Amino acid sequence: xxxxxxxxALLLLSACGGGSSHSPxxxxxxxxxRQHVDAKGGFIFDxxxxxxxxxxxxxxxxxxxxxxxxxxxxxxxxxNLPVSFGTSDSQSEKEVVDQLLAGQPINVISSxxxxxxxxxxxxxxxxxxxPKLGVGAHVHVFLFQGNRLHTIVFQALPRTKFDKLAPIFQxxxxxxxxxxxxxASPSPASTPTPTP
Length: 196
What we know:
Layout: H1 4-16, E1 33-38, E2 43-48, E3 52-54, E4 63-66, E5 72-78, H2 90-101, E6 106-116, E7 119-130, E8 134-145, E9 148-156, H3 162-175, E10 177-178
Antiparallel strand pairs: 1-2, 2-10, 3-4, 4-5, 5-9, 6-7, 7-8, 8-9
Helix pairs in contact: 1-3
């Protein structure tokens, strides 16, 4: 729902200590947004017009945007998973996500089941340590579409910036839509034949 990232911000503050005690105001999420359409990756994603679009150094990242190099949103779409997920496969989805995150140098604060514009999945909030900038925060959303996995990472580094960015990240997540999966061409048997 609409308050997932706000809840994540509160969890981060309580788990990491510090930060302000007031709720983030939605005003930073206002302003002009642009729409990014990625036909190859299969998604649509809105982002603040004032943010920079970066060229990802990782070829697995389809889209990278942020106000600066340490605070950003990143989209990856992994196609052709060996299995296909339906909307009722939440435990199987969670197992896949847990395997993806296993062994990572992170401190998981929370995980919760989410649905974003018809895509089911999981949202993990965790902290990590950057050797130069200290503790950062990620909200990592994993959304399943058949045999395709959409991952969206929202990063704040240092984590103290998370409160300010959370309403913007939430608006961006709410805008995320998957384009339809490519369908197989109809077989000749299913093509209607015109009658004279």
